[in-house]
Amino acid sequence: MADTADLSKGLPTNPEKATLEGKNKFLGMFVFLAGEVTMFATFFGTYLGLRDGTAGGPEPADLFQLPLVFIMTMILLTSSLTSVLAVYAMKKNQFQKLKLWMWVTFLLGVSFLSLEIYEFVEYYEHGLGYTSSAFASSFYTLVGLHGAHVLFGLGWILLLLLRYRGTGVTLSNAPKFYAFSLYWHFIDVVWVFIFTVVYLMGIGA
Amino acid sequence: MAENLDQSFEESSMSNEEKRKINREQRIQIIAFAFMIGITILAFLAVGSEQLPGVFTIPFILFLAFVQLILQLYYFMHLKDKDHGWPNSFMISGLVLAAPMVVSLILLIGIVKY
């Protein structure tokens, strides 16, 4: 309960869960992420079912470039680590460090998204339009949905960083930064399966 | 209480013991991250080298992805920590639902329909 947090000695050890509101946000975030798991499962299943239906158009092995996917993977993995470091800085009441690591996360996310847009443009120029084949539609929908999640996450963290640029760690913003970091790790988990199931299996199979 | 929510703090209430613990945890997270990078490189090498047969590569990279899923959920998202009982049950039920969904979609639209 909010009333039980002891503030006399400074910021509580787990500021994201020090208030009832923070606890509810923490739990609600996991309910949301569990729902996201099942939603992404349907998109993965559809892609795996339809990926052989190329209708004479470009095939996965013709399009995918391992070096580009590798760079994107490394960028997103690193941004997951920087958001972990941001959360540790938050727990230690180091607000400048929290902001710094979150900005690094934001910039890594922007570069990931730019590479994904570049990738889609490249595929389009190779003749893979959204309606070219069943493979094309399911590929763009699955990977595009992940890209849309990244875009949403970038808007989220940008808003938090701008709104709380000068406040320090408080009991009202700590749960928000923490919820963002959970979301960002989840986006990374989805990408792990996308690069394995879509790209590596598309090239290796 | 409400007016305290937007108050910032001069210092953290962590004891030295808690500080040592959190710094140790942070080091473990960085090791987990290095491990994730390692298995990612391994997965790309397994496919990129083009030396290995598909019957081996595909189960292998799926296994590596699963290891990475566990690392992300249990270390980065702290599911291994105490007081994460409900988050654990939500995420596990999500995954339990997801597995048959993927399999049935592959069977329904991938194999039965074509």
What's the layout of helices and strands?
The complex is a heterodimer of chains A (205) and B (114).
Chain A (H helix, E strand, L loop, with lengths): L19 H31 L9 H4 L2 H26 L3 H31 L8 H30 L10 H31 L1
Helix pairs in contact in A: 1-5, 1-6, 3-4, 3-6, 4-5, 5-6
Chain B lengths: L15 H33 L5 H23 L8 H28 L2
Helix pairs in contact in B: 1-2
Structural notes for this entry:
The complex is a heterodimer of chains A (205) and B (114). Helices cover 75% and strands 0% of the residues of chain A. With 205 residues, chain A is mainly α. Chain A has a single domain, classed as Cytochrome c oxidase, subunit III, four-helix bundle (Four Helix Bundle (Hemerythrin (Met), subunit A), Up-down Bundle). In chain A, helix 1 packs parallel to helix 6, helix 3 packs antiparallel against helix 4 and helix 5 runs antiparallel to helix 6. Chain B folds into two domains: 68 residues; 32 residues. Chain B is an all-alpha fold and 114 residues long. In chain B, helix 1 packs antiparallel against helix 2. Helix content of chain B is 74%, strand content 0%. Chain B contains three helices and no strands. At the A-B interface, helix 1, helix 3 and helix 6 of A face helix 1, helix 2 and helix 3 of B. Chain A: InterPro entries: Cyt_c/ubiquinol_Oxase_su3, Cyt_c_oxidase-like_su3, Cyt_c_oxidase_su3-like_sf, Cyt_c_oxidase_su3_a-hlx. Chain A: This is Cytochrome c oxidase subunit 3. Chain A: It is a multi-pass membrane protein.
